């Protein structure tokens, strides 16, 4: 620890990682995307079918969302690779040493919600495994429409026991992932899980479609959903759901271990490749169920439990589903909020304590209740709301780091109470004003402003929030710039 560093701003877990642990090369970085492209990504493709799009439209919209994500994602990851910083410490440079708590706690709230939803999805897969072994999976075959709420209502005791068990397993893995050692358990998952994920999902897809060749032909020949004014809100909601808002904000927590910028960029190519592929799997499989039953089954585990009738095959697939979705939850929804806690209380919290807190909160927060109400409700409420919160933050980050700072930071001042990033008493007024105004615009319909333009901005929450915040931040930086807010630094 540098003698100029403040104990409230520094501890070993949030310090820049040492060069000797910056050893994540092409494979683990690429592999993180492959492993996160788990069955829950198939859920996105399935949702597109439920929303009324055909398979080709779903794939094109998903690819569009992936490509939109890629630009801010690479810009975000550049700072992590170059300086070895996690996201909360990078945010000190654009929100202030104390203002960083604002994006950190927004991200924390989002991650905790997704933690519950993802844990629910893992629980479904493990439940399916148990139901297949005990012969109870056939009960679902009697139902034309199979939904997550049906599964929970039929087997409530099994659900809750499994849910708590998954929480415990995740906690053990996270406790072993010490950042000061380069997160060895996460790096190991980065090497192993991608190929487990892609192989298992590809096998599942090929086997599934082979069972229903006639339905596959019909599914691939469904008519296009006509693009009209009435479908624009649904189109925007689905497009936003394919923009990886949480990953853009959270990716530095993993990329800080990257070897160099070149390795990071190559690793990011995994996003459009793996995600689009897996979304296509989900879309085609759900389209087949719609042909078979006139009701599209969208839940990835229920697709297996309900439509694969050979128990041994179903068990094999559900075991892999369990591992891949567990891995996704750890990378996406547990590691980032632990960094957020450590950033807020660096002198009080260790990695172990942060893990325990996250586990407890994950049990207490029940965002999966929206998922239980149906896929459209889940996408049009939770995902849209979280995207609206994170889009403006991403806009500020890109505007500040890429345009104003031109990819240069003063690393020592990130940990100083009186440095370049103190701004106004530890807060950057430009960032805060930008966030407030953007939130007021994007979420206007939530407090009674029902004009069509505001409804469209809400439905395009991440896109509209990003663009508005990006422009507003640059404009306000010119209008409100004050020498007292930002001390000049020789970079």
List keywords for this structure.
491 residues, mainly alpha, Hydantoin permease, 0% strand, disordered C terminus, transmembrane helix, transmembrane, Uracil/uridine/allantoin_perm, Pur-cyt_permease
Task: Walk me through this protein's architecture.
InterPro entries: Pur-cyt_permease, Uracil/uridine/allantoin_perm. The chain has 491 residues and is mainly alpha-helical. The protein has one domain: Hydantoin permease. The chain is 70% helix and 0% strand.
- What is the beta-strand fraction? under 5%
Count of separate structural domains? 1
Query: What is the CATH top level name?
Result: Mainly Alpha
Q: In DSSP terms, counting alpha (H) and pi (I) runs of 4 or more, how many helices?
A: 22
In CATH, the topology is named: Hydantoin permease
Spatial shape: globular
The largest β sheet comes out as: none
What is the tally of beta strands? 0
Membrane topology: Multi-pass membrane protein
Family: Belongs to the purine-cytosine permease (2.A.39) family.
Pfam families: Transp_cyt_pur (PF02133)
Keywords: Membrane, Transmembrane, Transmembrane helix
């Amino acid at each position: 620890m540098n003698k100029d560093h403040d104990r409230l701003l520094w501890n070993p877990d949030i310090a820049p990682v040492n060069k000797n642990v910056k050893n994540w090369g092409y494979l683990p970085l690429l592999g993180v995307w492959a492993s996160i492209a788990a069955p829950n990504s198939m859920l996105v493709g399935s949702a597109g079918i439920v929303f009324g799009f055909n398979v080709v439209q779903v794939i094109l919209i998903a690819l569009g969302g992936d490509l939109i994500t890629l630009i801010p994602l690479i810009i975000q990851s550049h700072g992590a690779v170059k300086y070895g910083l996690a996201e909360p410490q990078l945010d000190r440079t654009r929100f202030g040493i104390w203002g960083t708590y604002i994006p950190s706690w927004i991200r924390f709230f989002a991650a905790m919600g997704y933690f519950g939803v993802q844990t629910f999805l893992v629980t479904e897969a493990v439940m399916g495994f148990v139901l297949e072994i005990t012969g109870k999976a056939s009960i679902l075959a009697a139902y034309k429409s199979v939904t997550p709420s049906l599964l929970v209502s039929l087997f409530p005791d099994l659900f809750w026991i499994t849910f708590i068990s998954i929480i415990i397993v995740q906690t053990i893995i996270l406790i072993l992932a010490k950042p000061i050692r380069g997160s060895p358990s996460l790096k190991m998952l980065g090497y192993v899980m991608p190929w487990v994920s892609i192989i298992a999902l590809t096998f599942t897809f090929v086997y599934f479609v082979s069972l229903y060749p006639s339905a596959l032909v019909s599914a691939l020949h469904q008519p296009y959903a006509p693009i009209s004014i009435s479908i624009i809100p649904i189109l925007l909601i689905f497009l936003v759901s394919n923009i990886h808002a949480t990953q853009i904000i959270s990716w530095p927590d993993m990329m800080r271990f990257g070897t160099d910028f070149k390795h990071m960029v190559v690793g990011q190519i995994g996003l459009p490749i793996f995600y689009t592929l897996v979304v296509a799997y989900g879309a085609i499989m759900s389209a087949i169920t719609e042909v078979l039953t006139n009701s599209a089954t969208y839940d990835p585990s229920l697709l297996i439990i309900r439509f694969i009738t050979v128990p041994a095959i179903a068990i094999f697939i559900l075991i892999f589903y369990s591992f891949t979705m567990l891995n996704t939850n750890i990378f996406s929804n547990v590691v980032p909020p632990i960094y957020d806690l450590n950033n807020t209380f660096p002198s009080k919290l260790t990695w172990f304590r942060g893990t325990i807190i996250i586990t407890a909160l994950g049990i207490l927060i029940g965002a999966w209740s929206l998922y239980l109400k149906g896929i459209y409700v889940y996408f049009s409420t939770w995902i849209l709301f979280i995207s609206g919160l994170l889009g403006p933050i991403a806009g500020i980050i890109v505007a500040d780091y890429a345009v104003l700072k031109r990819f240069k930071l003063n690393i020592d001042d990130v940990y100083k109470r009186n440095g370049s990033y103190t701004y106004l008493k530890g807060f950057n007024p430009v960032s805060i004003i930008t966030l407030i105004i953007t939130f007021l615009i994007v979420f206007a319909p939530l407090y009674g402003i029902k004009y069509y333009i505001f409804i469209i901005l809400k439905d395009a929450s991440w896109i509209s929030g990003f663009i508005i915040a990006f422009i507003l931040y640059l404009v306000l930086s010119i209008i409100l710039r004050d020498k007292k807010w930002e001390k000049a630094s020789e970079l």
